[in-house]
Amino acid sequence: MNSLRFLVLSGWCLTALLASPPAQAQGRARLGQGGRLNQLDNAKIAFITSRLTLTQDQAQRFWPMYHDFVARRRELNRAARLLRRDADNSGLSDAQLRDNFNQDFAIRQQQLNLEKDYFERAQKVLTLRQLAQLYQAERDFTKEVLQRVAGRPGSPASVTEP
């Protein structure tokens, strides 16, 4: 019964999020300020909760660790995105290109280190089966969001070429 309630809640949150009008370019730039990103985070938490069967003790220990991990992963992804965006390769010297590659490698290494550290810490709270379910739930949530966004009017995937 409890998992059914979470499933309904996650479906409702996801539907409410995706039923809102598509964001314009400026709106996308402001996602980090809250709003739709918070809605998406809440829907993701509800979705994951519906997939994992956590004891009260596990939940109290897991969610703060997970939120910290997500925030750190988001910051590293942002740094990688900014590096790619700011790298206009056509006007850079070989030394600058090498520096950009090295920065990209360093960010990816930090991402890997973060994943490994999180995995080690999470094993102290969750079983390996629960960790596998968590990773699958994250992939399923992302897939569902992308499918729903692609089905929206005005999204690049739903616009047909003449």
Summarize the structure.
This protein is mostly helical and 162 residues long.
Report on the structure:
Helix 1 runs antiparallel to helix 3 (36-51) and helix 4 packs antiparallel against helix 5 (94-122). It is built from 6 helices and no strands. The radius of gyration is 19 Å and the shape is globular. By secondary structure, the protein is mainly α. It folds into 2 domains: 1-54 and 128-162; 55-125.
- Alpha plus pi helix count: 6
Cα shape: globular
Report the count of strand segments.
0
Largest sheet: none
Helix content: over 70%
How far apart, in Å, are the first and last alpha carbons? 49 Å
Please tell me how large the radius of gyration is. 19 Å
Question: What class do helices, strands and sheet pairing give?
Answer: mainly alpha
Strand content bin:
under 5%
What is the N-to-C succession of helices and strands? HHHHHH
User: Would you tell me the overall average pLDDT?
Assistant: 80
> What's the structural domain tally?
2
Low-confidence stretches: 1-32
